[in-house]
Amino acid sequence: MYGLVNKAIKDLVTTNFGEDKWKEICRLADHVEEDFIGMNPYPDKLTFDLVTHASTVLNMSPGSILEAFGEYWILYTADEGYGDLMNLTGNTFVEFLSNLDMLHYRINNIMPELQAPQFSTRNETENSVELEYRSHREGMIPMLYGLIKGLGKRFEITVSIDHIEHKSATSDCHVFLIKW
Ligand code: HEM
Q1: What number of other Cβ atoms are within 10 A of residue 75's Cβ?
Q2: Which of 130, 147, 149, 180 has the fewest Cβ atoms within 10 Å of its own Cβ atom?
């Protein structure tokens, strides 16, 4: 994944737990530089290793780290120069969700090796929507929960999320029912 993701993990850890914990996580992950270049792609394994070792060092489950990270990502990207893009992506929660592919498509222009997930919305009602999620990766669902909760906060709503359909031999996507 692009360094921007690893940088955000570093930022989340150092802000909440201090530099020493981050150094310990990097040491366990055999990552000597302790820093990342946002616009460079890194192996997915490094990101997963950082999360796994953060889980040990911080005594939190990998899922709760990924979820906290997802929520943090909404604030982090807005602060790191992607605020205008976030503003363009939607004026309402549902509009934003329905434009997630456009958002990543634009990011893809500046990060050509991006392997973005794909999203579509369906069955929208006044206070719910279903979100289809397709990804090349396994294990990112807790991050998606955090992202959706963070987006809810951005639009000042409290959301609940149910995983209603799982990727399987007959379906290429996960589906989430989001209510507010
Ligand atoms: C300006 C805001 C955003 C930027 C700059 C951004 C960029 C990225 C980048 C660089 C990655 C790593 C993928 C790679 O390097 O191959 C990623 C992954 C991901 N993004 Fe975004 N993203 C943004 C907002 C969002 C939002 C709002 C959502 C959903 C609500 C989202 C959903 C995801 C998910 C779930 C992944 C994990 C990868 C996967 O599932 O395969 N992103 N994004």
Answers
A1: 15
A2: 180
